[in-house]
Amino acid sequence: MPNEGSYEVALKRSNEIHADLPIHPEKYTMLTGDRPTGRLHLGHYFGTLVDRVRLQNMGVHTNIIIADYQVITDRDTTANIADNVRNMVVDYLACGIDPAKTMIFTHSAVPALNQLMLPFLSLVTEAELQRNPTVKAEMEASGHALTGLLLTYPVHQACDILFCKGNIVPVGRDQLPHIEVTAKIARRFNERFAPVFPEVAGLLTSTPLLPGLDGRKMSKSYGNSIAISMTAEETAKLIKKSKTDSERMITFDPENRPGVSALLTTAGICLGRDPKEIADEIGMDGAGALKRTVTEAVNGYFEPIRARREELLKDMDYIHDVLAEGNARANEIANQTLAEVREAMGMVY
Ligand code: TRP
Fold first, then answer.
1. What region, left, alpha or beta, does residue 222 occupy, with left being phi > 0 and alpha being psi -120 to 50 degrees?
2. 3 confidence band (pLDDT: 50, 70, 90)
3. CATH value at residue 224
4. What is the DSSP-derived secondary structure letter of residue 249?
């Protein structure tokens, strides 16, 4: 569990891996994923999708889980889940994920992955689960009771990562406790039974968190996020509606002017420019001009991605096949790993 200095250790390890990746990409297996609770947005895109594509094209073994069982950690319904899963595949492919290089699959289609949960749960204590700060924060944010699945989902993520012997997981700083759980489970399994699992490290992302349009954390429930799948018109409307302030002069000041600054950050990331410079250019032209700039920047950047999306949507059989193939491959790998796990535990009869 996180202790003093653990961040520094994780950062050092992450930097070493970042340096080694271009030299020995084949040594690394990345596993990451998303919960299919809605559409992917700009936070996902700049925060992780760009990196996934980069690792994929570098020659790292890349794997993406659509974490469908994680949807019910803190909600009572699986409404729209099939539609969300299919759209997630469409988003991935439109953004440059290549299914010939990256395995895309879902929890629910891979029984052997889920079976790892049983031996893995025996390797953690209740106290360790209870003190995970991320789980606590997520429970509070959801306003939902702490379900058994939410409490143990870091262990389920260990199953996601370890079934394919993943050794790097791209994460933000707040997700490091989860990686520590996975690393600990791998180590304990190897010590108790036989060395089956690799050493796992978090690959810390250098991209700062993209705020929502109002400056708060980007979240679907706040209505402050631009989905990759939005049309140019929907994007314009959302930006137009976003809250700025009464000061005409545009300045970059995230602390005191969260709305204006979030808009500048969004334009900056799409244009590959410093938000302060954009603020200087707009100056006394005010919020209207700022919103026009942001709208053009976002729609300009996502125009080719959205066009690819439209093309992909015309052939849903292909999308279905991509997922079916990913699931089939994930099953092969999971069955193999589970066989090793049973062998290590002497459960071969
Ligand atoms: N929890 C992640 C999210 O909500 C998705 C996820 C599931 C994941 N399993 C994982 C991420 C394993 C990294 C590793 O976005």
1. alpha
2. low
3. 1.10.240.10
4. S
Q: Tell me, what's the pLDDT at 275?
A: 98
Write a three-state SS string for 22-89: CCCHHHCEEEEEECCCCCCEHHHHHHHHHHHHHHHHHCCEEEEEECHHHHHHCCCCCCCHHHHHHHHH
Hey, how many other C-beta atoms are within 10 angstroms of the C-beta on 102?
Answer: 23
Name residues whose C-beta falls within 8 Å of residue 288's C-beta, 6 or more positions apart in sequence.
Answer: none
- The CA 259 to ligand 1 mean position distance, Å, reads 29
Domain of residue 305 covers 220-313
**CB under 6 Å to ligand 1: residues?**
31-35, 65, 67, 70, 157, 160-161, 169
**Single-letter amino acid code for the residue at 156:** H
Same domain, 100 and 246: no
Read off the pLDDT of residues 224-244 as tens digits, 9 standing for 90 and up: 999 999 999 999 999 999 999
Could you tell me if 191 and 235 lie in one domain? Answer: no
Dihedral sign for Cα 292, 212, 44, 13, please: positive
Counting the structural domains of the chain, the total is 2
Ligand 1 pocket test: pick from 160, 179, 204 the residue with the most ligand atoms within 8 Å of its Cβ: 160
pTM of the model: 0.96
Per-residue confidence band for 1, with pLDDT thresholds at 50, 70 and 90:
very low
Residue 189 and residue 47 in one domain: yes
- Two structure tokens written together for 319: 């999308």
212 within a domain of the structure (yes/no) = no
Residue partners of 56: CB distance under 8 A and separation at least 6: 62, 96, 97, 98, 101, 102
In this structure, the answer to whether residues 8 and 114 fall within a common structural domain is: yes
172-182, pLDDT tens digit by residue?
888 899 999 99
